[in-house]
UniProtKB/TrEMBL annotation:
Domain HIT: start-end pairs: 6-115
Gene Ontology molecular function terms on file: catalytic activity
InterPro entries for this protein: Histidine_triad_CS (IPR019808), Histidine_triad_HIT (IPR001310), HIT-like (IPR011146), HIT-like_sf (IPR036265)
Segment forming the signal sequence: none
Motif Histidine triad motif, residue range(s) on this chain: 99-103
Protein name according to UniProt: Zinc-binding protein
Active site annotation, chain numbering: 101
Domain of life: Bacteria
Length: 121
């Protein structure tokens, strides 16, 4: 995987982002095209292109992303009402940046299923 993704540039502070959380393993920032009142991307600092590229040794960092989501939900008051956490894999699933990332959405009732009737076919 190329180390030069949009997210790598955000990690390296080469391009700006509205960062809401950072630790040694991960970074979370507001999505520039939010799909909910609260929409952040939670990324590992280690570049992993897709879910298909996750290795056994990556399990702790991937699990850590979910821990960060839980922490952000608690800090922002979404734990009780609920929130959605999604990771897309490859183009047909909507992945546009090939550096794994969780989308965390909250702040409104999120419909289910998360697609329109037109997309079911």
């Amino acid at each position: 995987m190329s180390q030069d993704t949009l997210f790598t540039k955000i990690i390296n502070r080469e391009i700006p982002a509205e960062i809401v959380y950072e630790d040694e393993f991960s970074l979370a920032f507001k999505d520039i095209n939010p799909q909910a009142p609260y929409h952040v991307l939670i990324i590992p600092k280690k570049p992993i292109a897709t879910i298909n590229d996750i290795e056994l040794d990556d399990r702790e960092v991937v699990g850590h992303l979910y821990y960060v989501a839980k922490q952000l939900a608690s800090e922002n008051g979404f734990s009780d009402d609920g929130y959605r956490v999604v990771m897309n894999c490859n183009e047909h699933a909507g992945q546009t940046v090939f550096h794994i990332h969780l989308h965390m959405l909250a702040g409104k009732v999120l419909g289910w299923p998360p697609y329109t009737d037109k997309e079911k076919t």
